Amino acid sequence: MSDINFIEDHEFDLFITDLNGNLRGKRIPASGLKGVMANGVKLPQSVIGFDHWGDDVLENGLVFETGDSDGICLPVHPKPIPVPWAESARDQILAMMYNPDGTPFFPDPRQILTRIVERYKALGYTPVVATELEFYLLDGASEAKRRPSPPVIVDGNGCRLSKTDCYSIEEMDGLEGFFAEVRRDCEIQGIPADTIISELGPGQFEINMKHTDDAVQAADHAIMFKRLIKGVARQHDFGASFMAKPYADKSGNGFHVHFSLLDEQGNNVFDDGTEEGTRLLRNAVAGMLAHMSDSMLVFAPHLNSYRRFQAGAHAPTYASWGYENRTVAVRIPESEPEARRIEHRVSGADANPYLVLATVLGAALHGIETNMLPPEAIEGDAYSQSELFEALPNRWEAASETFRDSPFMMEYLGEEFVRVYAAAKDQEQQKIYGRISNVEYEAYL
């Protein structure tokens, strides 16, 4: 009962995450909390499959064929989580969707990741995961203008962040108030934020999360963190964007995933005391490389996502791997043997964290279950050795085709997910390609 009293005078947001990573739910008065925590909230199951703009996707089989029936959204945490940046007292409740009979609704991306983790546990393994998310701080007017502009550091020297200043401490000094509030709010919400880095673009930053042996919770933290960054940015008259490529000539926003595996005794099964790691590590790498092309629609879900993938832009264009090499798609970082792990470097920050982790871990699992082995690890510049590895799809439509035809996606993430997600991407492509761009008028009118 103390948890209920804690938020007696608050409203609260209950939300699920749709396949695009957008939050969908309801704002509910405090009087409804006890019932929500016990029984959840009803939402149409079709909400999971909305397109990016929140429109129904009639081709996904979840709308008219089902009578647009409801699912049950049940809270995934024992009590609400404060929203410190909100102007009025408010909390949030992260939820997951179920069928009316209580069984998991597997187009829900959190359910998909949960199922992958359970497959690991059936083999006696627990994934240990850490995420790295990049984002841009923008001038506060950027959202209204629909164009990105670097922020002015008011509490610094009053200058606009218009130049690249990678790993700059002074740049972060000028944003001390913003990052102090980010740190405070992460602690309040239980988000395990670790290091903060000034990245390659003007106003671009990366915040790394600490490793956790709960992969589903790692994705929860990534979802909550993205909401937190945007909320705190508005409090400081900034905008914030996880768009894959806000500036055509600047660095894109990536979402890197680190993971290792523990056995039932708590041992890292990627560690054999050497820098190379175990055969099991190479099995996992092989699975990730084998399914990278058919997973691209998850890692790069939008038209803009594919602007990240350019040679020399620190975003991989081939399904390559190597040791301590940032030009590859799958990197084995230098570390102490007991910390031997894999870093997956393909996904953009615009992707859905649940689906990214489910796809990365699912591909690694397939490599382990079938004892796959990768080609030789690459040395040096991966971009100059492209003939050695499979090229990744560099267009949205091409990624849709490989995704839809993927036996791996069907088996590991589910046929219903493939149908619903592909339908959303088809509708988004039709909407965007149905519009004539300004550059076409400028060039051809």
Quick structural gist:
The protein is α+β, with helices and mostly antiparallel strands and 445 residues long.
Structure report:
By secondary structure, the chain is of the alpha+beta class. It folds into two domains: 2-102, Ubiquitin-like (UB roll); 118-413, Creatine Kinase, Chain A, domain 2. Helix content is 33%, strand content 18%. It contains 14 helices and 14 strands. The strands form two sheets. Strands 7, 8, 9, 10, 11, 12, 13 and 14 form an eight-stranded mixed sheet that branches. Strands 1, 2, 3, 4, 5 and 6 form a six-stranded mixed sheet that branches. A hairpin with a 5-residue loop joins strand 8 and strand 9 (204-209). Helix 8 (279-290) packs across helix 10, helix 10 (353-369) crosses helix 12 (407-413) and helix 12 (407-413) packs across helix 13 (415-433). It starts with a helix and ends with a helix.
